[in-house]
Amino acid sequence: MFERDPDTAVYVISVAAELAGVHPQTLRLYEKKGLLDPARTSGGSRRYSEADLDRLRRIGELTADGISLEGVRRILELEEELAELREQLEQTRADAAEAVARTHRHYRRDLVPYRAALVPLWAVHPFPTDNRNDDRSSDGSRNGGRRAS
């Protein structure tokens, strides 16, 4: 099955109006108010796309809620801006994730993090357990535990 690009303008004004459930004059009014911008043929006839029809449906939802055409125009403008900002945010997040991954790929694998490399000195060189080099005896005298003769 062939899928058409939603921005390809194929519908004449009467068909677009019927598909949207409005009068063709309403489409002209929406265009005049800046709510729609249909493509034009070389002869100047309007052509509407699926994206235009989606926009017409959104306009219908908003006007049914009692929003004025100027309010609808502003809402549509803000929705488009929000969509663009969301795309930019997603791109920025993807770029940042790639930068982090690229940085991680350049880490030297033979280096050890500083805290992990620290070993207490006593673990490498334990304290002596014998008192051979100590001149003090267990009773505190300086004869090294030997009896005076």
Give your account of this protein's structure:
This protein has a domain at 13-105: Multidrug-efflux Transporter Regulator, Chain: A, Domain 2. 52% of the residues lie in helices and 3% in strands. It is built from six helices and two strands. It has helices at 13-20, 24-32, 50-64, 69-105, 114-117, 121-124, and strands at residues 39-40, 46-47. It has a two-stranded antiparallel ribbon. It is elongated. The model has no long low-confidence stretch (mean pLDDT 83).
* Tally of helical runs: 6
Strand content: under 5%
Distance between the termini: 114 Å
The CATH class label of the domain at 13-105 is: Mainly Alpha
Secondary-structure content class: mainly alpha
Strand count, sense and barrel status of the largest sheet are: 2 strands, antiparallel
Number of E-state strands:
2
Low-confidence segments: none
Q: Could you tell me the radius of gyration in angstroms?
A: 40 Å
Assembly category: single chain
Q: What's the architecture of the domain at 13-105 in CATH terms?
A: Orthogonal Bundle
Order of the strands making up the biggest sheet: 1-2
Helix content: 40-55%
> Which fold name corresponds to the CATH topology of the domain at 13-105?
Multidrug-efflux Transporter Regulator, Chain: A, Domain 2
Whole-number average pLDDT?
A: 83
Name the helix and strand elements from N-terminus to C-terminus, one letter apiece. HHEEHHHH
Outline, from the CA principal axes? elongated
